[in-house]
Protein: Chemotaxis protein MotB
Amino acid sequence: MAGKGKQAGVTIVIRKEEGGEHGHHGGAWKVAYADFVTAMMAFFLLMWLLNATSEEQRRGLADYFSPNNVLARANSGSGAPFGGRTPHADGASVSDSGAVRVERGPAPPVLDLEEEEGDTPAPPPPEMAPATPRPDPAAIPDAELREELARREQVAFERAAEDIRAAVRDDPALAELARQLVVEQVPEGLRVQILDAERRPMFTAGSAAPNERARALLQRVVGIAARLPNGLAIAGHTDATPFRGGERSNWELSAERANAVRRLMVEGGIAEARLQSVTGHADRELLLPAEPANPANRRVSITLLRQLPESAAR
Structure:
């Protein structure tokens, strides 16, 4: 029969389902992931910039974005931002508008006769200590004023001398060196001498470098001298024993030792401008003329100079 195996008028549709997949849920997760990656990249970029820039550069960047920076107010320098600096200029482009500037002006007078008796003004820091030249006696016509200035200076010298002696005496490491320290008032001012002793030199033989004992004594002297405004004179001396060193002599040796003391005093806080002279006297001013070879003749002296000579005070 025709059409055997077929049903007339019926269409059979076979649908095949592929398993393992589900329908799409939209693209919102892609946007969130992109935002996260962008944030992480910005974070790592920020960390890299912080590590790769200096403090001045970071301050310049902060100043650029600050609402109070120089761009928000007015032009400065040559009329350009950041005081006229360009990206190619050395250093960071930092605004200094409103910054406080401190400039050193003339030092005030050191001696004040209106101070109460016994009051001692606080000493200035060593780096700010004024250089005080000796006043011209002719500029002080009043004899009573000159006498008062001289009296106050005398009291200051006596205090300084006692303080130096006490600083050495009360230090167990230096007490045995007290005999090698001579502190006395002379017409020029207050003189401090550091002497050699038998088997206790302050300098190595033939050398201008002070040893540890000399350095320790000098530190005590510098600490007291820094409190006073007076000028300073440093001198080196030797004994009469000829120097054995080729072309060098006791003249060079004494001058070199005085200059070594000068360097130590400046390093210790004495203002360079206070130094009036640094000299070497060789064996021309022996401490013990009757014993020219005595070790005590080998010495350095530091003199705090009077602001008014003794003759001018009278």
Notes: The helical segments are 28-52, 55-65, 143-169, 212-225, 250-267, 310-313.
